[in-house]
Design a protein that fits this description.
This protein is of the alpha+beta class and 191 residues long. α1 runs antiparallel to α2. It is built from three helices and eight strands; from the N terminus they run αααββββββββ. Strands 6-5-4-3-2-1-8-7 form an eight-stranded antiparallel beta sheet, with no helix packed on it.
Length: 191
């Protein structure tokens, strides 16, 4: 048995050696050789078990073939705070307390924001660093009539308030308000 395992181990080591610049064909050949070696090892173990099991009438279960190990995959995602970037030190100093997703007439902003509760379900959102959310709007204000219906307005890049119209949300636990071509989501967050 030791001789069989030694032979298989040597075969696996030799299969793993080779030119590092080999293409996929070389990797396929290596995988096939490893599979053949595993089959040979399994056959040798079965033969040995049959020989030893015949003497006393009991057979021990064969160990499962070992899987070849591969190098760990590189982490493809950058570490962060989910889909949002972490707020800068200036944003934190200016009171960032939420993450916002805003889409208004095709323009959008997604990232840290300052959430200002105005009583009831009414609120305003803006960037804490004083910059506009994008080139079309600087901040958004929703004045709630009920806990699921509100009237929205936004301050444009010229500083003028524009009407969004009626916005609703399905229930009071939903963080997103939607209207005609508009979606405003504010997720509370402690950074």
């Amino acid at each position: 048995m030791k001789r069989v395992l030694c032979t298989i181990s040597c075969a696996l080591i030799l299969c793993g050696c080779g030119d590092k610049s080999a293409d996929d064909k070389g990797e396929l050949a290596t995988a096939k050789a490893e599979a053949a070696a595993a089959k040979a090892e399994t056959a040798a173990m079965k033969a040995e078990m049959a020989a030893s099991g015949g003497a006393n009438g009991t057979a021990t279960p064969a160990p499962s073939p070992t899987k070849s190990t591969t190098a760990p995959k590189a982490d493809s995602k950058a570490k962060g705070n989910g889909k949002y970037r972490m707020p800068t030190a200036d944003e934190l100093a200016n009171g960032v307390n939420a993450n916002c997703d805003v889409t208004l007439e095709g323009y959008s902003y997604s990232g840290p924001c300052k959430f200002n509760a105005k009583g009831g379900a009414s609120f305003g959102i803006s960037r804490a660093d004083g910059y506009p959310m994008n080139q079309q709007f600087e901040e958004i204000y929703l004045e709630a009539d009920t806990r699921t219906a509100a009237y929205g307005r936004f301050r444009d890049s010229d500083g003028n308030w524009q009407d969004i119209g009626i916005m609703t949300r399905p229930n009071t636990k939903d963080a997103c308000w939607t209207g005609d071509m508009t979606k405003v989501c504010a997720y509370g967050k402690k950074f």
